[in-house]
Design goal:
The complex is a heterodimer of chains A (336) and B (224). Chain A is built from ten helices and 15 strands. By secondary structure, chain A is of the alpha/beta class. Among the domains of chain A are: 61 residues; 77 residues, no CATH class. Chain A has a six-stranded mixed β-sheet with strand order 9-12-13-3-14-15, sandwiched between helices. Chain A starts with a strand and ends with a helix. Chain B has eight helices and no strands. The chains are: A alpha/beta (336), B mainly alpha (224). Bound molecules: adenosine-5'-triphosphate and magnesium ion. Adenosine-5'-triphosphate (ATP) binds next to strand 2 and helix 1 of chain A. The site of adenosine-5'-triphosphate has 11 residues of chain A, from strand 2 and helix 1.
């Protein structure tokens, strides 16, 4: 069963095209590793899948539910034609006074702004009116079919994300870190009769029970009442994993879970991730630990310059890459 | 008992009584300013951080003016200003003017402390909360505010102790706070102790505040 389906995802930061038609899918229980050189868009991809970043185009389906479908905007940068308007009739003729402007349309509400800035930069205000948008490759302009905050929040619950820098809540103990969201966030579930769907947050006892169970799973039962500042980096990352697990996500994502750790602490975190694989957790892991990816992942994606250059069975891609860029990358990494 | 001793005794009681009034008035200025300026400051802080430009610039300009001019001038302007340009100000008592000036002034200072605290919170804390499904409101009240609270306690303590001492500026429009009363008593009876008494009063008051703040800071000292 497909739990994640990503189709033609495009993401821009300003005019920087960071994700280019990224498509892939994940089966339930699959472990997918994403590797690639720095700046390739790995973090941006994870942030887009968890809706921390907005994509500009593409489809994301989680658990068979389409969440974002083809938000199309103009191709960027678009060419806007400004013309000097003398008489209303000349409007239809393409005259020599037309000026082509490259306008950066990174976000819709910046559109007017970008145009105004361009206008101001034209010293003598001959060009007063936007006559026509000329786009070399015309695309439909569907403005913001992006889901609202509330909807995104619900969909987001299907995804868990473990950050590189943990982001634990420092003012809460380990067990409180785990219990906080489950007690606050209402989740849809069927009621006692099993027919109606009700929205409830779980009680404190239920949250604690679950938290202690998950802490045991990551081997930190004895640290339940410690504050994050009182435990090591490796333990912090295990708490972060446990915190994500407490929300029962369909897919657990990791963004370089070991890069902020001292080398001697990476082992304990990788071990926890491996143990999750054995319990059937679907995982999407961005990592620089190639050998770990080779071992744990079913599939590997090599992301470079915002594009998926290579995708396939983990051992095949890592041992025998076909693309030049992938080979180069592997050589560099493996040589250290 | 001779007459002289009786007069002395009466004057002592009067001085104590008057000092007591001054003390109450000082306390009232302090308490009311705190109660009004703490929430108002938060509002101004949100204004200064607003994404809506006019609100943002309004708040920041207000803060700039208030922090850029002496409080004593603000008290005078608020009390006499409206009358000078022909408004009816009979509704505004001297005490009311003092409270208004102090509240605006301290709200501006508090707002900058709040803003500094809120802006110092890393983005990752919000994102972690959102990813766990929290609403913006939940993330702000359960994750951000408790951490901001800890961060701003020391500067808040500082500012509040300054407020205790600033209450003495109320005398500029003849509101009888404790120093004004003490000075009057010292002049009338040719005594020094009423003035010394006010000194001890400030020391004791600020001593208690210092203890209170170190207690509040200690309560959250286990986590960093
Ligand atoms: N918030 C942002 N605003 C503007 N540009 C951004 C932002 N975040 C990332 N970028 C740009 O997007 C591109 C991809 O960055 P990203 O962080 O996704 O790469 P990465 O593959 O995770 O790299 P690394 O391995 O170093 O973590 C980079 O060119 C980066 O400059
Ligand atoms: Mg990254």
């Amino acid at each position: 069963m497909k739990v994640l389906e990503v189709k033609g995802v495009n993401k821009y930061f300003g005019s920087n095209h960071v994700l280019k038609d990224v498509s892939f899918s994940m089966e339930k229980g699959e472990v997918l590793a994403i590797i690639g050189s720095s700046g390739g868009g790995k973090t941006t991809l994870l942030r887009s899948l968890t809706f921390l970043e907005r994509i500009q185009k593409g489809t994301i389906e989680i658990g068979g539910e389409s969440i974002i479908t083809d938000i199309e905007k103009e191709k960027k940068p678009s060419k806007y034609i400004w013309k000097e308007i003398e008489s209303k009739k000349s409007k239809n003729n393409k005259d020599d006074n037309a000026v082509e402007l490259e306008v950066d349309l990174s976000s819709t509400n910046k559109k007017t702004c970008a145009i105004c800035n361009k206008l101001n930069s034209i010293k003598n205000h001959k060009f007063k009116k936007l006559v026509k948008i000329e786009d070399k490759e015309p695309t439909t302009v569907t403005l913001s079919s992006y889901p609202k905050d509330k909807e995104l929040r619900e969909k987001r619950l299907k995804m868990g994300l473990v950050f590189q820098e943990f982001n634990l809540f420092p003012h809460k103990t380990v067990v409180q870190n785990l219990m906080m969201a489950p007690m606050l966030v209402k989740k849809s579930m069927s009621d006692d009769s099993g027919i109606n769907v009700v929205k409830v947050a779980i009680t404190e006892e239920q949250a604690r029970e679950k938290a202690l169970e998950v802490l045991e799973q990551v081997g930190l039962s004895d640290k339940a009442d410690a504050y994050p500042c009182e435990i090591s980096g490796g333990q912090k990352q295990r708490v972060a994993i446990a915190r994500a697990l407490c929300m029962n996500p369909e897919i657990l994502c990791f963004d370089e879970p070991t890069s902020a750790l001292d080398p001697e602490l990476t082992g304990e975190v990788l071990k926890v991730i491996s143990s999750l694989k054995d319990t059937g957790v679907t995982m999407l892991i961005v990592t620089h630990e190639i050998m770990f990816a080779r071992e744990i992942a079913d599939t590997v994606i090599f992301l470079d310059g915002g594009r998926i250059l290579e995708m396939g069975d983990a051992k095949t891609v890592i041992d025998n890459p076909t693309e030049e860029r992938t080979k180069e990358f592997m050589n560099k990494i493996l040589k250290g | 008992m001779n007459i002289l001793a009786l007069v002395e005794k009466l004057s002592f009681l009067e001085i104590i009584g008057r000092l007591g009034e001054g003390f109450l008035s000082t306390l009232a200025i302090f308490g009311l300013t705190l109660v009004l300026a703490l929430p108002l400051g938060l509002l101004v802080a949100f204004g200064s951080m607003s994404r809506f430009k006019p609100i943002k610039w309004l708040s920041r300009t207000l803060v700039w003016i208030i922090r850029g001019t002496p409080l004593i001038l603000q008290i005078i302007v608020i009390f006499y200003g409206p009358g000078l340009i022909g408004w009816d100000t009979s509704f505004l008592s001297r005490f009311g003017a003092v409270i208004l000036a102090f509240t605006i002034n301290y709200a501006a200072y508090f707002s900058e402390i709040y803003r500094g605290g809120i802006e110092s919170m890393p983005k990752g804390q919000y994102e972690a909360a959102y990813l766990l499904g929290m609403t913006k409101y939940q993330a702000f009240t359960k994750v951000i505010i408790p951490q901001v609270y800890k961060r701003i306690l020391p500067p808040m303590g500082n500012e509040i102790i300054t407020l205790v001492k600033d209450t003495s500026l109320a005398r500029v429009i003849a509101v009888g706070e404790i120093i004004m009363v003490a000075e009057e008593m010292s002049n009338v009876y040719a005594l020094v102790w009423p003035l010394l008494f006010t000194g001890f009063f400030y020391l004791a008051f600020n001593g208690m505040l210092t203890l209170l703040f170190s207690y509040l800071e200690k309560r959250n000292s286990r986590w960093a």
